[in-house]
Amino acid sequence: MLYQHGTLGTLMAGLLEGTAPISDILKKGDLGIGTLTGCDGEVIILNGVAYHADARGGFRQLDGTECTPYATVTPFQADESYFVRHITDANTLLDDMKRRAASENIFFAIKITGKFETMHVRMMPKQEKPYTKLKYSADKQPEFIYEQINGTVVGFYTPELFHGIAASGFHLHFVNEDKTVGGHILDFELNSGAIDISNIETLEQHFPVNNQAFLESTIDHSTVAEDINEIE
Ligand SMILES: [Zn+2]
Questions:
Q1: Burial classification of residue 27, based on how many CB atoms lie within 10 Å of its CB (0-12 exposed, 13-18 middle, 19 or more buried)
Q2: Quick check: 66 and 21 in contact, CB under 8 A?
């Protein structure tokens, strides 16, 4: 089961108010990704613990009271596990995962635990109210490249049909073994690592029904898909 609160499409439209506490998200799964109020940074959920990497390079463990406008989690259970070495092209590895997953037409969750030669991440800078479309703050996101770093990649593959509630293809976040850095993954090289894939049968999409801005907004759907492609 994949549980998602909010959608990427509504973030794109500038609905960035946190509408669910992280503690609620953690009740639905132990592995996942997300962001905080204002689309502040990157949330990484691993083994039932939520971490946060911000655009200033800060990193901390969340206590659960923080609110998120968009988060996705699953009770992770590997259906497919294998080991790889010397991956210089992340896309080759990800393409191989697509073939090993049950289908490209379902969601699946992945976990890569290993030694990375390089890990290239970015963190979304927090917006303050009044919020604007996400692409305006996405323009200013800092990027970091870490070398020789142990850690874990977590995230999801979204089938093309669902582009809009999430970004189709892979959306992956990283947390290092020491729990001191993390972020939204742009690219990586893997020395060696364990790959786990969890096929997902059910999508539970939760909407922020207590948020007046969400309930009353008219979203310009004509630009959502394009905006996602631009920044993800
Ligand atoms: Zn992300």
A1: exposed
A2: yes
Distance 165 CA to ligand 1 centre (A): 13
Instruction: Look at residue 86 in the predicted model and tell me its pLDDT.
Output: 97
Of 81, 50, 84, 83, the residue nearest 67 (C-alpha): 50
Cα(98) to ligand 1 centroid in Å equals 19
Burial 144-179, CB ≥16 within 10 A → b, else e: eebeebebbbbbbbbeeebbbbbbbbbbbbbbbeee
Regions of the chain where pLDDT drops below 70: none
CA 103 – ligand 1 centroid, Å: 23
CA neighbours within 13 Å on the CB side: how many for 73? Answer: 26
For the chain, the C-alpha Rg in angstroms (whole number) is: 16
CA of 211 to the centre of ligand 1 (A): 23
28 vs 208: CA distance, rounded Å:
16
- Residue 34 C-alpha to ligand 1 middle, in angstroms? 7
Instruction: Count Cβ atoms below 10 Å from residue 57 Cβ, excluding itself.
Output: 11
Query: What is the token pair recorded at 3?
Result: 């549980």
For the full predicted model, state whether its pTM sits above 0.85: yes
